[in-house]
Amino acid sequence: MLPIIEPQIDLPYFFIGDDTYPLRTNLLRSYPERYITEQQKIFNYRINQARRVAEYSFGVLIDKFKCLNSTKFMPDNSDFIVLTCVLLYNMILTEEGFNYNQETFDTLRTTHIESSQKPKTKNNNPTFEAKRIRDIYAEYFCNAGSVQSNSIVVIQPTYTATII
């Protein structure tokens, strides 16, 4: 349930996909870029930021644990393997600290995006319910779930590199 929405609406958990994935009730994606409202632009920005964080996180894991870039393990074990890698990575971070720089990030992002498999779906037509759920989140991001400023601002992150 989303907080501070009246009446309380019970929404399903969902995955976030890019534009190649179909809109489903459990798989949200951004609005198409043509003819969108300000509210839809804000939704697109927020959902794409969340997707990028997830992609980056998996890119870091794949870089550290090469077994994740393989299809040699059974899908039934994938949850256990990913969770184990996350746990081990958190232990490594505790011991070594976080030391990824912009160059590493760019390499990971490019490699992960190029190697990711896109689903081939026969029916990309979203259901009415999927559109309704996306619209509810778009409204939420502009009202109760808004951040300090809903104007979309592109901020270039600054990274410092230590030369040894």
Question: Could you write a compact summary of the structure shown?
Answer:
This protein has one domain (about 15-140).
Description of the molecule:
This protein has 164 residues and is mainly alpha-helical. It has one domain. Helix content is 48%, strand content 2%. It is built from 4 helices and 2 strands, in the order ββαααα. Strands 1-2 form a two-stranded parallel sheet.
List keywords for this structure.
HARBI1_dom; disordered C terminus; mainly alpha; DDE Tnp4 domain-containing protein; 164 residues; 4 helices; metal ion binding; single chain
Q: Strand sequence of the main sheet, in spatial order? A: 1-2
**DSSP strand tally:** 2
Level of helix content? 40-55%
Instruction: Please mark out the parts with pLDDT under 50 across 5 or more consecutive residues, or reply none.
Output: 112-117, 153-164
Distance between the termini: 50 Å
Q: Strand pairing plus helix content: what structural class?
A: mainly alpha
Largest sheet: 2 strands, parallel
Strand content: under 5%
Strand/helix succession: EEHHHH
H/I helix tally: 4
- Radius of gyration over C-alpha positions, nearest whole angstrom: 19 Å
The coarse silhouette is globular
State the assembly state of the protein chains: single chain
- Domain module count: 1
The overall pLDDT, averaged over residues, is: 75
